[in-house]
Specification:
The complex is a heterodimer of chains A (about 150) and B (about 80).
Chain A lengths: L2 H7 L11 E5 L3 E7 L19 H23 L8 E11 L8 E12 L2 E9 L5 E13 L5
Antiparallel strand pairs in A: 1-2, 2-4, 3-6, 4-5, 5-6
Chain B lengths: L2 H12 L7 H4 L15 H15 L5 H5 L4 H14 L1
The chains are: A alpha+beta (about 150), B mainly alpha (about 80).
């Protein structure tokens, strides 16, 4: 499965898709990038007259690239899926160091801790264009059933 | 390894994942991971990985599916230790 195919299997769409591109992927790690469009609605309210990307959205971006994209790659490698798996976030523990302004591009790097019994747990970091650490943490997701009926 | 020893070690492993602490007071074979201890399926995976490390065994998908109670876990551990 190539990098573009993974994006096609993602179960998200605008305005909640936070992956633009997979830069590198293998069975132990993934690197991807995303540019936060200034058009996102949440910038109107977070914060008033001072738009910054909410931490929950940074976490979502880390989860989509670091756990979901890697999960799709791993499932496909084992030929477990052909459609879109039914997935859920099961835990996240994240620390935040830098803010991300509208229009900024971030890079997410994720390393697999384990993929067992349909649970994928990863150590994930996000960097800005100056290669500064934006946030990092441990995020895990589960596959609830092997495939959704389409 | 005695049954009591397995259950004591199992109790130590599950403690950090338990949501319903009262369930730990009467920790025995009939204790149900989901209903009595409120350990969800995501955390049960972590319990199983810790069990693998603690007892130096490998647990497969089928065993996990049959692991609903402390007694189930004890039997799986005993069988794996014997087989190993």
């Amino acid at each position: 499965m190539d990098k573009k195919d993974i994006l096609k299997h993602l179960p998200y769409s605008k305005p909640f898709l936070f992956v633009d591109k997979i830069l590198e992927i293998n069975e132990n790690s993934v690197t991807g990038q995303y540019t936060f469009s200034p058009e996102h609605d949440f910038y109107k309210g977070h914060f008033k007259a001072n738009p910054l990307t909410p931490g929950v959205i940074l976490t979502e971006c880390m989860a989509q690239i670091g756990v979901v994209c890697l999960g799709i790659f791993l499932l496909n490698k084992d030929k477990i899926i052909s459609g879109r798996p039914n997935i859920a976030l099961s835990s996240s523990e994240v620390e935040y160091f830098k803010s991300v302004i509208p229009g900024e591009t971030v890079k997410v790097v994720s390393e697999k801790q384990y993929f067992r019994f349909n649970k994928l747990k990863c150590k994930v970091s996000m960097f800005n264009n100056s290669e500064e650490l934006v946030c990092r943490g441990v995020i895990a997701g589960m596959i609830l059933d092997k495939e959704r009926n389409e | 390894m005695s049954e009591k020893e397995i259950i004591d070690r199992l109790k130590k492993i599950v403690e950090p994942y338990v949501q319903r602490v009262e369930g730990l007071q009467n920790f025995q074979e009939n204790t149900d991971f989901l209903n009595d201890l409120e350990i969800n399926s995501a955390n049960l995976v972590d319990v199983v990985l810790d069990v693998e490390d603690e007892f130096d065994i490998e647990i497969d998908n089928d065993s996990l599916e049959g692991m609903l109670t402390v007694g189930d876990a004890k039997s799986i551990i005993q069988n794996k230790i014997k087989a190993g």
